[in-house]
Amino acid sequence: MDQEKIGKFILNLRKSNNLTQKELADKLNVTSQAVSKWENGRGIPDISFLKLLSKEFNVNIDELLNGEVEKKNNYKLKIILSLGLLLIISILIGFMIIKDDNFSVNTITSTDDNFIVKGVVAYNNNQKGIYITSIEYLDSDDTNYVINSCGLYEHFDNVDSLLKECDNVKMFESYDELSADNMNNLLRNIEFHISDYESLCKDFLTSDLYIEVKLIDSSEKFVYYTIPIKISEEC
C-alpha cells in the first residue's frame, strides 16, 4: 500500500472540492494535523475515516486505498454524460429545424487512444456548430498542473488557426498550488461551444482539428498535450 500515493490522492480530492485542511478536518471531526499527516504520506486514515472520506468525495474505498480513480468508467457518470450529449443534440436539432429542415449531426471523437473525446457537430446550409462536452485522459499522470492555455485549432494549408479557447477553464501565467490538479481532473472541466463555426476547409468534415492544452507544473515547466479529433462520416 503506497501511503504517499494515497496522501496525494486525498490532497487532490480536497483541493478539487475547494476545502482547506481545517475545513476537511472539521467535517471529519479530526485535527488539521491528522489531515496533513495523511496528505504527506506519513499515515493513512483508519476504516471509519476512509468511509467518511469516501462519502465526502464520492469515491469508493478501493479508490482511496489505491490512490487513484478506477480507470473503468463509472456507470452513473456514463449515464450522465450520455444524457448530456443527447440533450445537446436535441437542442441543436431543434435549433437547426427552425433554421432549415436539411441538417446533419455528426459525432466527434479522438484519433489518440490515450484520450476519449465526446461531442457533436451540427450543420446545414446556413450554420455549423461544434460542441465538445467531455475529454478524458486514459493514461496515468499524477503530476499536478495548472492550465496556461487551451484551445481548439484547425490545421489547413500549413496554417494553424485558433477556432476557440476552452470554455469553463481558468488560465494561469505561473504555477498556483491551490488551483493545481492532475491531468484528468483538469481535462474534465474543458468544454467547447462554437455556434458559428466557419471552416477554412471547403468540406469541414475533412478539416484537421485538434485540441492543444498547455500546462505548467510545480517547477514552472511547460508541458504540452495535443489531442487530435475527427468528425464521423461524410456529407
Q: Main beta sheet, described?
A: 9 strands, antiparallel
Helical percentage? 25-40%
Structural class estimated from helices and strands: alpha+beta
The 3D shape can be described as elongated
Main attributes of the structure:
434 Repressor (Amino-terminal Domain); alpha+beta; 2 domains; elongated; nine-stranded antiparallel β-sheet
Question: Can you describe this structure?
Answer:
The chain is of the alpha+beta class. It has 2 domains: 3-66, lambda repressor-like DNA-binding domains (434 Repressor (Amino-terminal Domain)), CATH 1.10.260; 75-231, no CATH class. Helix content is 33%, strand content 31%. The chain has 7 helices and 9 strands. The chain has helices spanning 3-16, 21-28, 32-39, 47-57, 61-66, 75-99, 183-188, and strands at 103-110, 115-124, 128-137, 144-156, 159-165, 181-182, 192-194, 208-216, 222-231. Strands 1, 2, 3, 4, 5, 6, 7, 8 and 9 form a 9-stranded antiparallel beta sheet that branches. Helix 2 (21-28) crosses helix 3 (32-39). The longest helix is centred in the middle third of the chain and has 25 residues, at 75-99. It is elongated and about 60 Å long. The model is unreliable at 96-101 (pLDDT under 50).
